[in-house]
Design goal:
By secondary structure, this protein is α/β, with parallel strands linked by helices. It contains nine helices and 14 strands. The longest helix is centred in the N-terminal third of the chain and has 17 residues.
């Protein structure tokens, strides 16, 4: 079996926190490399440990937390989700100095990984009509199939991750022909494209990552939905948005908590927000924030450790 090693740069207080996160996301094991664990050669402990001073000098200044993930059809999105969770962890450190939380992939170079993972990514069906198909794979379509062809590069959103799959299922259930849709944190563009295929009249796909915007725009063009879907780089709070009937946000809990109130200005009264990327431990925080912003929950879906919510914007309703 092939393995991908994820290495996160952090601090001594952050070591166990990051290790727990890696295990939570499915790492087969973790290792914490911390120069603070090596006694100073000039100050031996009770057992008179002997260390070569060169060993300490060669150790990294940062604490490194290493985790190993089996390379299979889920690894691409697991690593992308890890990157998102590290961003969230930095935002809610609660006074704990976490360091840079930079993520590195070793054992497989980035450019190799971007190609090697593709052999595990095969066409699959979600819900009754949606079929997610890699651009390089053949698929014998049957009548009624709505095929979303993707080359996600290293952007999040192949459809294999639980959070994306739940969003796709909810889109199929709640989206109606002619709706205006906003996809917040579009990643590969998978949800925006699916919305267009399901009958949305217009879709605004927004992401702050320029690489994701480039990937999403390419996938939109490839799927022939560029007349319906506009992909932009931006921040919903500060930048461009649109009045929509349905918004989907497959991001992280903190971002949902921050965006749900500003989003009510762009979401029609009675409009729907599909929110995913919520780890179970953060569900209560999201529910508190969305309730305060004027939403009510109309469906809750769970898959593994993840929660997706479909919420209705009650603002302006009688």
């Amino acid at each position: 079996m092939q393995w991908c090693e994820a290495v996160v740069h952090t601090t001594t207080p952050g070591g166990d926190i990051v290790s727990d996160l890696l295990v939570h996301l499915g790492a087969a094991g973790t290792e914490i490399v911390d120069r603070g664990d090596v006694p100073e050669p000039s100050k031996p402990g009770v057992y008179w440990e002997m260390y070569d001073p060169a060993m300490l000098a060669a150790m990294p200044q940062d604490v490194l937390v290493k985790g190993w993930f089996a390379q299979d059809g889920h690894t691409h999105d697991v690593l992308a989700q890890l990157s998102l969770q590290l961003t969230e962890l930095a935002a809610r450190a609660g006074g704990v100095e976490m360091g840079s939380l930079v993520l590195e992939l070793t054992n497989v170079a980035d450019e190799d990984w971007a190609e090697n993972w593709k052999r595990y990514y095969k066409p699959f069906r979600i819900g009754d009509r949606l079929v997610i198909k890699p651009t390089w794979e053949e698929y014998p379509a049957i009548p009624g199939d709505l095929i979303v062809e993707l080359d996600p590069g290293m952007a999040f959103g192949t459809g294999t991750h639980e959070t994306t799959a739940m969003c796709l299922e909810m889109l199929e259930k709640y989206l109606r022909n002619g709706m205006g849709v906003m996809d917040v944190g579009t990643g590969s563009g998978i949800l925006a494209i699916a919305a267009a295929k399901l009958g949305a009249a217009s879709v605004l796909a927004v992401d702050i990552d320029p690489d994701a915007v480039k990937v999403a725009a390419g996938n939109v063009e490839h799927n022939g939905v560029a007349r319906q879907v506009r992909v932009i780089r931006g921040d919903l709070v500060k930048g461009e948005a649109m009045l929509c009937d349905l918004a989907v946000a497959n991001i992280v809990a903190d971002a949902i908590c921050m965006l749900c109130a500003p989003l009510t200005r762009h979401l029609a009264a009675g409009g729907l927000l599909i929110a995913s990327g919520i780890i179970r431990e953060r569900e209560a925080d999201v529910l508190e924030a969305t309730e305060a912003a004027g939403y009510t929950v109309i469906e809750r879906m769970t898959r593994g450790e993840w929660v997706a919510l479909c919420l209705r914007n009650e603002a302006g309703r009688a």
